[in-house]
Amino acid sequence: MRKKIIGSYVLLILMLTAVFWWIVNSSLVDAMLLQYEQHFVNEAKLVKMEFQERYSDTFDYGTFANDIHDLVDARITIINSEGVVLADSNEDPSVMNNHLTREEIQEALATGEAAVSVRYSDTLKADFMYAAVTTEVDGQTFILRVSKPLTAMRELTMRLQNYTWLSTAIAAILATLMAVLITRRITEPIYALTDAANQIAHGDFGRRIYNGSNDQIGDLTNSFNKMSIQLERSMRELKSRNVELESILNSMINGIIAIDQDRRILMINKICFEILNIPEDYVVQNESMYKIIRNEEVAEMVDTSIAKGISQIKELQYVHLDKILRVYINPIVTASEETLGSIVVFQDVTQIRKLEKMRSDFVSNVSHELKTPLTSIKGFVDTLKNGAIKDRDTAMRFLDIIDIESDRLYRLINDILLLSEIESMDREREAGDIILNEVIDEVINMLELKASEKGIVLKKTEHGIFRMNANRDRMKQMLINLVDNAIKYTERGEVEVTIEASDPWIRLLVRDTGIGFAEEHKDRLFERFYRVDKGRSRSLGGTGLGLSIVKHIVLLYKGRISVSSVPGEGSTFEILFPNQETLKSLNIEQS
After folding, report:
1. Is the pLDDT of residue 589 over 60?
2. Which of 32, 258, 425, 446 is 20 to 30 A from 69 in CA distance terms?
3. Do domains 2-156 and 252-347 have the same CATH topology?
4. Per-residue pLDDT tens digits for 537-549
């Protein structure tokens, strides 16, 4: 058997080697010749261009032919339209025959394109390749011909053929050796399995041989499979089912517990440990369910499910875990309708309920904030329609109020849209290299007039130049919100913006000497629509979203924001942005 395989391999290798060499040998000469032809045509075209540029009344054909010969290392011949050789870089043109009958000359004159031919040169006793092109100068037609012997190409072709022979022979030898090695590797285990068959028959189960031959290998296969097939099949099915069940349960996002009639735990998946805050190394199999399900309502649902064989669902507050869980309980029922236990499924809906509450609160706040200016606008419009518009002073005062409320409504909607946009972003998509110092200057120049109207000093303190990869407009929006907020709540004194290094962070401080706020407001200051003094905030035109926008811009760039304040003395907002090295480490930690 081994000889048959090796013989087949050798025959196949010889056939493939012969085909490969024939293909390479037949295509090599054509490929080289084609490459030479293209090269000659390009040289002939270059000679044509040079001829057209240098031609003049005092033009010397012989000098031109010799000059070009030195440049391209090829024989250059210049022929007129009657076939007379005007110049040749290798021969005296006076002793040369008329060239009008040459193949390349006739083709070039007939087509007007470059023509190539190969023939034997009686003069130089070698095969030559000729490339001819026509050109017309001052009403005269010339044929420019470039020629080279094919000796170098023939030598190169011969060398490549020799290399091909050598590489093919080496490949054939290596393939033959590999065939021998592979054949031995295939057959040796088969002979070894013959000796192992008796050991398997005496109790070493779990092995199988897959082969359909009728020789010695087939005999071994039949006796091997008869001894092990039944046991191996049973074990495989059992392991497969266990793996599938475990994979399904562990891939679920809900916690699952299987409980028998005695309220003992048969199975529990990994996510259930997290939902119920059970230590990962805690062994719960065969333990009582009451040790991990410490909720009377769930226990009653399990009892009812096992006793009556019915499914139940309930959402309840898991007080000691501070979670809201949706509990599904289904009985384990056999075909004979006997209840063997129940399946308890826990779904943690805490975050969902929190988000629903946040959404409800947000909608409520937005509705309230929108309703206030709209009610004011509608009331004044109704008053104007009922006759107040005839009193010019009253009408103008009402229109001013409507204009103010419209601006407030516009700012509120813009802030809501901006906040929604920032919250939905996981990263900045329009970032660029910016200098924070320049952004601060722009904000100070923009708000300096507003500060001076209140008699407030607006200044900047910087300890170095700081760059950051961010969206310039977004950073400007953040600083405008902070500085404008500081000016609003400062009656006298100053508002100072400081930028400095605080390794490994870039530190921004916005400090004012305003009214400040009590410590009880600190944790909620960045919430949407939260105001320390609602009446004062509305009178100053605030939307209640400015600081929330600031917070989300800071978080977008993986920064940190904090605030400290003393009532009557002022507030200080601190923002820390990571420098480039810190940003890289944060990205690594998050990934």
Report:
1. no
2. 32
3. yes
4. 444 445 567 788 8
Distance CA 262, CA 257 (A): 14
How many CB atoms are located within 10 Å of the residue 331 CB? Answer: 20
Closest to 570 in 3D by CA, of 498, 496, 506, 508: 496
Tens digit of each residue's pLDDT (9 = 90 or more) over 504-519: 889 999 999 988 887 7
Q: What is the overall mean pLDDT for the chain?
A: 76
Residue 574: its pLDDT value, please? 92
In angstroms, rounded to a whole number, what is the distance separating the alpha carbons of residues 484 and 516? 15
Q: 87 φ, ψ to 5°?
A: -160, 150
Specify the pairing of strand 126-137 against strand 140-149: antiparallel
- What's the CATH number for 428-590? 3.30.565.10
| φ, ψ for residue 488, nearest 5 deg | -60, -40
Query: pTM value?
Result: 0.41
Nearest-angstrom CA–CA distance, 391 and 385? 11
Residue 576 CA to residue 468 CA, distance in Å, equals: 12
Alpha-carbon distances, residue 131 vs 46, 114, 178, 254 (angstroms): 12, 7, 50, 81
Instruction: Provide the residue type at 296 as one letter.
Output: E
Q: What is the CA radius of gyration of the chain?
A: 47
Confidence grade of residue 591 (pLDDT, cut at 50, 70, 90) = very low
**Whole-angstrom Cα distance, residue 398 to residue 408?**
15
369-to-140, 408, 428, 467, 552 alpha-carbon distances in Å = 93, 10, 29, 38, 21
Distance between CA 176 and CA 166 in Å, rounded? 15
For 54, 57, 123, 144, 277, the CA distances from 138, given in Å and listed in that order, are 13, 10, 33, 16, 100
Task: Give the whole-angstrom CA distance, residue 47 versus residue 80.
Answer: 15
Structure tokens at 240: 């497969």
The residue behind tokens 């200057």 is 441
Q: Are 313 and 329 a contacting pair, CB within 8 Å? A: yes
Amino acid at 339: T
Contact residues for 369 (Cβ-Cβ < 8 A; gap 6+): 412, 529, 543, 544
Which CATH number does 2-156 carry? 3.30.450.20
CB 140 within 8 Å of CB 51? no
As a whole number of angstroms, the distance between CA 167 and CA 21 comes to: 10
Burial grade of 528 (CB within 10 A; 0-12, 13-18, 19 or more): buried
Please give the Cα distance from 499 to 462 (Å, whole number).
5
Cis peptide before 504 (omega within 30 of 0): yes
CATH class, range 353-419:
mainly alpha
The answer to whether the beta carbons of residues 238 and 218 sit under 8 Å apart is: no
Per DSSP (E only), the strands in 294-394 are: 312-318, 323-333, 339-348
Nearest Cα to 289, choosing from 302, 279, 271? 302
pLDDT band at 124 (very low <50, low <70, confident <90, very high): low
CA 427 to chain centre: 13
Q: What is the pLDDT of residue 187?
A: 64
Q: Domain-by-domain residue ranges, the chain?
A: 2-156, 252-347, 353-419, 428-590
Torsion of the alpha carbons at 307, 313, 317 and 321, rounded to the nearest 10: 70
pLDDT at 30 over 70: no
Q: Using CA atoms, how far apart are residues 28 and 160, in angstroms rounded to an integer?
A: 8
